[in-house]
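Hello K.,

You asked for the raw outputs rather than the summary table, so here they are, unedited. I folded two proteins back to back in the same session to keep the settings identical. This is the first:
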Amino acid sequence: MLSLAILVIVLAVLMLVRMPVAFAMGIAGTAGLAIQIGTRPALAVLERVFIDTTASFILVAIPLFILMAELLTAGQVTRRAILACQAWVGHVRGGLAVATVGASVLLAALIGSSTASTAAMATSAYPEMRRHKYNDRLATAVVSVGGTLAVVVPPSIVLVVYGVLTETSIGKLFIAGIVPGLMTALGISTVIKIVSHTTDYAPRGEPFRLGHALRASRHVVPMVLLIVAVIGVIYGGIASPSEAAAFGVMGALVLGLAQRSLRLASLAPSVSTAVRATVMIVTIIACSHIFANYLSFTRVTQDLLSAIEGSGLPAYAILSMMVLVLLVMGMFMDQLAILSLAMPLAFPAAMALDFDPVWFGIVVTKTVEIGLITPPLGLNAYVAAGQSGVRLGEVFRGLTPFIIMELVVLTLLIAFPQITLWLPGLMLGRG
């Protein structure tokens, strides 16, 4: 246990000096294995883990989903989505903020990263809301909380990583994320309407014009249909997630060329971004497995499970403690880093308590996303403040009712697992 304590300190120090979490975990895990079983066996474990990880077929879905997102976003999809949603609901009080939520749902399905989605909306939706005289608190809060949709709404890269780390069906995770994602979007919209009608933060927009709304939607509807088709073939058992991702890339390429929003000059950067992101994610997964191997050799996981079994605490009390820890981690870290650090211990504990792995995955991802908008160090709030120029304190004050709403949604997902599980339970075939 002394060696474990030393390595945890080493891991913390490496992360404090801003070493990427993947390398920090890899170094700590390899050093721990070397102490535990010797240098040569540790290097053999290192080699085996990297070969086994990179040879996993399901990882093919990661670069393909990222490439699909890059191809679709190359054509100014964020701005088009905002304008389309604004044309349909912008005429009501708070309508532009609700339109921003709708655009955030679409962007979540494309980008899959919470902080990246927040940054994109802060540079496109926030100026639009300011132009229509929205209060800074509401505008930046909507941008920040809208970014949280990116981790639950499928096809989410975070859910893919959770599925790979825990060997859980990625297809079922995608389908399980649909209802919680829509619940969150509905909750955000409800808070916007309440704030709009109780304060002067959100003025009424321009009158509704059907022709304008239809014209504004013509470039966005094909993208929405493509995303629905990608999720639909998974739900119907027609294709695996990797095959659906390949279909999505082909569809995105065809759409980009047909709409003339994709040029050959932007194709190379899209591929390059997908490759760089994939290398980063696969490295995180591999290094997480190295650290998990070390925990297995030291019997930390087994000792933790024994302690849980002997504690006599109710399962939901232990889950509440896990959720609290993940909320705190979410204030400081990216969601992929949290998964790689927490799942080697948290997932076996959850399985020992007989929790469903798909439901637990949605609860975990939802929890770490709430941490991204929670003071004092919610990363999404920092991104929104940095991109908009609004003081951080104002952003957090605007986020308060949305944080309460997020906690209510999380509580409902925990209390009623069937909210998450009924749709995956209807899946056919190859989920």
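The second followed immediately with the same parameters:
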Amino acid sequence: MSASSLPALPKVTIRSIHVAPLFGESPKGGWSAEIRPEDSVHALIAVHTEEGLTGHGSVFTDGRLASAAVEVLEPLWRGENALEPERVTEKLHQNTFWMGRGGSLTHAISGIDIALWDILGKALGQPVGRLLGGTYRERVKPYCSLLMEEPARMADVIAPHRERGFRAFKIGWGPFGRRDDARLDEAIVRAAREAAGPDAQLFVDAGASDAHWPQGLKWALNTAQMLKDYGVGWFEEALRPDALEDFCVLRRASPVPIAGGEVLTRRQSFLPWLARGAFDIVQPDVTKVGGISEQRRIAWLADEFGVKYVGHGWNTALGLAADLQLASAMPHCDLVEFIGGSPYVDGIVREPFTVDDEGYLRIPARPGLGVSLDPHALARFTHAPAALFAPE
């Protein structure tokens, strides 16, 4: 059969986009100005089509900002073909440069793009990972992302998740680096290593994107030396997020790998960090950078520079689902981030994520993102959850 005789895919027309802010049980972020449970820092997005297909995405920003952004973008997305995620989302990017690249508009476009990939997978009966070029793996190890506490409490923080089956952990934020007490920092890491066990992978996130981060390069250099003694797999956000020169120095000197990039958006922002050799591991967030389309470009760009890609995933079940599909389609991605105990991950899908006996997550093989939202569970966290499943 010739290419010209193959049946053409019909257009699937975007009819409406609904934003559902999540609030009520927002997990602690560890920030010095801590978010409250009723604050909205994540929102879900539903893209509805005239043909009845609906796709879902996730946005890491205040739901009010996401709603305003979708409204601003409406003349660009209404009536577009939902089967062409990269073209449609690049259209949204290209026509909004003058409003500021990388802020709320980019965040909202991220959720739209994820939802469009979900629609494309459903329309073709294929998981998104296969549509991204092919699958390198069917499962991937999740690292359980947890907040640091005082040393005496770290065992209580880690133990329930180790019992659940996790064999990789990241501890971050909390008092670490914020009290100018190197002995406290080490005691926290020591307690975490003891709780996780010698066989577990352990990563440390200083969280230097917090407001008015007090530490600098010398602290990061000294702390990296300490982390080596506890077999830490990477040191994340060790410096303020704009300290490119210091990151380059730290990466060259550190005995442990250096990770970062979660606050950057769009591929253009990542290029100088990759070209200058600032990271061993780059961590774009699919719910912020521009969605799956942009995340894939960043991941392959990192691969060209010999930098490992592991997505930042402090978001929702849909963000995790997108990261799992991307992990299946990238040759060297062996980890995904999993927020420990967040109801926005474990509590909004029909089938909760399950860690197997070896500490791995199975990558969904169903069409699209491969996960299904639970409308009854969502009613606890958002107004009008029905609008996520059918246009109002």
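The radius of gyration is 21 Å.

Happy to rerun anything if the numbers look odd on your end.

Regards,
P.
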